[in-house]
Structures are given as structure tokens and as C-alpha cells.
Input
Amino acid sequence: MNRFVVAETAVIDAPLGRVWDVISRTDRYAEWVAGAIEVTDHHGVATVGKTYSERNRTLGPLKTDSVWTVKEIEPFKRRVDTGTGFAPLQDVTNIFEFRPVQSADGREATEMLYQVEYTIGLGPLGLLLDSIQQPAMRAGMRTSMANLSTLLRSEASRTAL
Amino acid sequence: MSSTQNTDTDVAAARHAHRADVVVIGAGLAGLTAARELVAAGKSVAVLEARDRVGGRLLNHDLGDGQVTEIGGQFVGPTQAHILALAKEVGVATYQAAVPGETVYVNDGKAKRFTGHTPPDLFALPDMGIALARIGQAAAKVDPAAPWKASNARELDGMTYETWLRKAEITGDAVDMINLFLNSAYGGEARDASALFSLWYVSTFGNETHPGTMERGTGTTGGAQDSRFVGGSQLVAQRLAEELDGRVHLSAPVRRVSQDSTGVTVVSDAGDWRADRVIVAVPPLVASRIVWDPLLPAQQDQLFQRLPFGTLMKCVAVYDKPFWREDGLSGMGLLRGGSPIREMFDNTPPDGGPGVLMGFLGGKEWRKWAHRPAAERRGAVLRCFAQAVGDRAFDTADYVEQDWTAEQWTQGGPTSVAAPGVLTDFGPWMGRPHGRVHWAGAEFSPYWNGYMDGAVRSGRHTATELLHQN
Output
């Protein structure tokens, strides 16, 4: 079995508390996670041991149904979920980590680590498969964090209710 | 039972403080137009309006400095001669709604700019061409005045519009494009309406000499979204009310209508009226909730209950100026792929001033977003706007939502949508007078049904009908 770790980081232009609030909402992933078309089942604010389900885009027009289980929550720091439904990727683990930083103009911002770990069987073919899918996965992770930044900006506009 | 009714009538009679030849219930365009016609014919008229304002689904939002934008109905266009002539008579001018610049087509998050009427989507366009041709052919066979008489009316009314489209080998892309229009036109989708209703709806996009077409209904310049009113569409209703000179009574919701051989008693929160005849010019579903004595014919009551309005919210973002125009954009956008806002327009007042973007949150998207926290919904709307005009869309000076489902006296928007079975089983009861009670409203018009022009047509038609009765 080949075990892969794919990680991307980005600075989210919003205070840690607001970032944490949004990423904790299992009903909101389709609003910012690039591959999530729809959240089909959720339990609101993430709770360890509970699950949520998504319809996800995979390659091209292909779609899959995934189920995620919340495994670990360290408030405002770390969140770990495991997912099924991404064959041939197996033992998929999604990790978010956060730390507060300051933006160039002195505003509160948040550094986010987005990491996905998984295995692919199939020996050398698995390595080939990963070389095809990993760039798209990385791009999706970067897009997701950019989307998260945009979402937080949109909800913090001057006329915020 | 009858003795109770008699007692109620007696009590109401004892309370009579007002008298008019005709009481009009509802001060939207239809009711006000009917009242104007009746007054011109020498009738004494009282208009009872539940709200503290006139205009019904026409509603201006004050932007300050004498500027307004509309958060209700706003567009008019060719073949809508009734509303255009009426507006002219009351001194409300029109202006071209389209703003020079490119439109933005967003599909799956990818934005493309284009000019003209054809979105740059090679996959959807062939299907859309087929869809428009088939809709046009089928709609041409439906009589706008009596859709239930179409030769295949039962078959068409036995399926949803979406089923009919798919049976006509129109695929997902074109169905989604049609839903993009229905999102604001119905506050719903093709799956919400019967095929007969939808083809009839298209057949109403015209007049006695110009058969209805989908292109006219969906079009901007030269179509139903061609023009707007200087001062906002509600100004037409306000001017009509001014002309009626004290005959319009606000905050007067009507609770009960009782009729007997000598007249009609209308019980409202602002007092009771006794009249020879009554015109009811409120949405059909709202009309069905008035207490009727005697009861409405069961078929008519069933019809009104089955003509609910769609689910629609207008979302308006106000900016210091219409910044998108500097980038060569018209502010118009068509958004697909699960976007909360499907259609957006530049709603900036005609003489400049603050920039205004308006988007429709309707149908399935309304159902998804209406119950969400306001800040989250506003964020989703602004992200849609930003996809079309850039991130400056987040820098709002003001943000306003008008959820028409939250209006007690409208209960949805923009118009009635009939599910399968309604038109063929109950349609002939549409405008049939109930004794001394007559019906008016945009939903009772054979042309531009659900539109301002339909409302004015209907108001005139019903006033004429009533005068002939007398």
C-alpha cells in the first residue's frame, strides 16, 4: 500500500474565531470546499463521532457520494475527519490546522493547513494514478481555502447585519 | 346555520358607517385601475387596502436624495400597451432598462463575458434552440383566454413542464437554462408547474395582434425587461391613488364579504362598507382566505387555493457608484451551476447616483437560503454578484432584501403557478363572478398574466364587466 500525504497552506484573511466558526459547520462545506457539490446530510456544528455526507466531484464529470466521520477536535487549532467513498483512494483522512497570524497591514488573519492523507493500492499503478490525481487535489485544496477567504469576506462586508 | 348567518348580517348591517356603489378590495394596479374606470363612469367607489401603502407587488425602496430602486415588479416592454399608456396618463415616464456593456455568464463558477442575447455556452445552446422552437410551436396552440380548451389540454396538464421538456428531448442544460428564467418568473422551476400552465404562460407574452413568444418574455431590450419607470414602478400606483382623491383606505384588511339580494357587506378592520358590487383584486390565495358568506363556489375556492404564488426574494446591494460600468459591464449576469442568484441586473437609478445590483433569489434557491441566517444569505448573494462584477461587490453601502413570501397580503411572488391538473379541472372558474363579487388581478389576464400589464388589463376588463352588469 502506498500512503500519501498532500498538504497546502494559505493565509485566510479573517480572525481565527470566524474561520473556526465556518469550518466547524458541517452543513456549509459545499459553500467553500471545491469538490463538494452538495452536503446531503449533516449534524450542524461538528461533533466528534458524528458523520456528515457529501456529493463530490472527482475527475471530470464523475461524481461520488462520500461519508465523513469527525474524529478529533481541538478547538481553534485542529480538526481531523476520516472519509469513505473516494475509491481508489482509501483510508482518507482530512486534517485542518489553524494558527492566528497578522496580515501585512496588521489585521488579524489565520494561517490554515489543509492536509489530506490516503492510501492507494494497486502497486505501481497506484503511483501512476496518484501522479494524475494529486495535482488536481492540490489545486482543489488551494481553491477551497481561497473560497473560504472569500466567503468570510462576503459575510463581513460593510453592511453586515 | 342560516339563523347564525342572518344574525351576523344583521349585526354587520347595524354597524354600517359607509356606503359606495362599488367596493374594491386591494390597491394594487388592478384594483386601482378598476377604481379609476368606475369613478370615470360616475360610480362612487371605496378602495380597501390591507397594507399601509398602495401598489401591491410594486414597491419602491428609498435610496436617499430622492432616488429609489424597486424591490417588487419593475420591468415593462413592448406589447404591454395597457400599463405603458396608464403610466403616461398619470405622468410616469419610462427609460431603457438595459445598460451598455457586456453581460456575464457564470457556469460552475467560471465567468464569461458576452454581448447580445446568446450566452457563450456551446453545450447548452443547441439544446436551447430546440427548446425555444418546441415551446414556441406548442404555446402557439394554446388559447391565452382559455388554455383548458387546447386540443391536448388534458395530456399537457397531466405532467409537469420539466417532464414535457424532457419528453421533447430537451436535455439537462436547456432545462436548467429555462429554469434560470422560471426562477424569477415563477419563483420556482419547471418541475413546479404543469406543462399546460407553462405553455399558456408563454402564450400570454403578447397581445391581441402579437402572439406570445418565449423570446419576448425572456428578452431585455425589445422584450419584457425592456424598460423601467422613472421614479420606480410603485409611483404609478401612488399617482393612481392620488387621483382617486381620498377613496383609498389604507390599513383596512377585509375579513368578511357577505352578500344578499340587495347588496354586499364588506367587513374590514377600518370599518364596514355596504355596496352594490365588489371587485376583489388581491392574489387568488389571499382571496380564498376571506370569510365568504355565502361560501365561494367550491370549484372556485379550490382553484384559488391551488394558485399560490412562488417563492421569491429580491436582493439588492447598493454601492457608492455603479463601478462595474467602468469595466465595460452591464451589471447583468446569468448564473448557473447551483448559484443562489440565477439572474442579476443593474438597478441603478436612471440618472446615476448610487450603484445598485439586484438579484433574484427564487424557487429552489429560495427554499435553500430563506431560512439561513441573514448574514450568511447576504454573503452568498454578494459572492454571486462578485462572480459577475468582481470583488468590489463586497464593498456595499447598503443591502436590502425583500422576501415576498413574508408579505402577509401577497404570500409569495411574483405570480401564481399552477401545478398539474389545476387548469383543466378548475380553470374555467377563473374570473367567473360570484353573485355581486367580481375578480381582478394580474393572474386573471389572458395577456401578460402575472405582469403589470396583465393587472391593468384585468382591472379595466372587470370594471367594464361590472358596468355592463349594471
